[in-house]
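Thread amino acids onto this structure.
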């Protein structure tokens, strides 16, 4: 099964990361605005078991993603990930709904994408949550090396998911939000 290996850090000033990426010769791949819907089955309660489906729409494409259980024993988030490009966001949404899947979260983010030393480095902006830098590579050690080059200290890196940050925001503000939209 394909695995994703990633870590992220919250950012106070994304311009510092942009500047460092430029200085280091990272390749800028573009930016996109994403709409993400995460689904669970009320029958199997996969989210409670660490699994879910995500339907993502950008200006260019629509991707259905299966996210599997996270592996333990690592600082990085390592999990199964299978992605399939689909022709129609609306048709896939209808199929999932007809199969009984329910939307757990609906969120947007603005993403800047870079390629650097064989890794994908992104700068994400979320409504209410702010800025994050996420690094995905083929090993935890590579992620940590790249983070240090970007000025992110190892202790600033986390394997926490964006769901975690959304839930923390809801606890802190005493709000039950299912949507994080611009």
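Threaded sequence (182 positions):
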């Amino acid at each position: 099964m394909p695995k994703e290996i990633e870590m992220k850090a919250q950012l106070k000033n994304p311009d510092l990361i942009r500047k460092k990426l430029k200085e280091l010769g990272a390749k800028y791949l573009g930016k996109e605005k994403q709409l993400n819907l995460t689904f669970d089955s009320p029958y199997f309660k996969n989210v409670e078991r660490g699994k879910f489906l995500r339907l993502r729409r950008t200006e260019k494409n629509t991707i259905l993603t299966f996210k599997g259980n996270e592996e333990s024993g690592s600082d990085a988030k390592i999990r199964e990930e299978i992605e399939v490009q689909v022709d129609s966001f609306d048709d896939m949404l209808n199929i999932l709904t007809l199969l009984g899947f329910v939307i757990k979260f609906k969120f947007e983010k603005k993403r800047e994408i870079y390629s650097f030393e064989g890794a994908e480095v992104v700068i994400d902006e979320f409504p209410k949550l702010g800025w994050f830098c996420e690094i995905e590579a083929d090993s935890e050690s590579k992620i940590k090396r790249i983070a240090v080059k970007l000025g992110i200290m190892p202790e600033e890196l986390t394997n926490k998911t964006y769901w975690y940050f959304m839930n923390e925001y809801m606890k802190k503000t005493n709000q039950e939000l299912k949507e994080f939209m611009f």
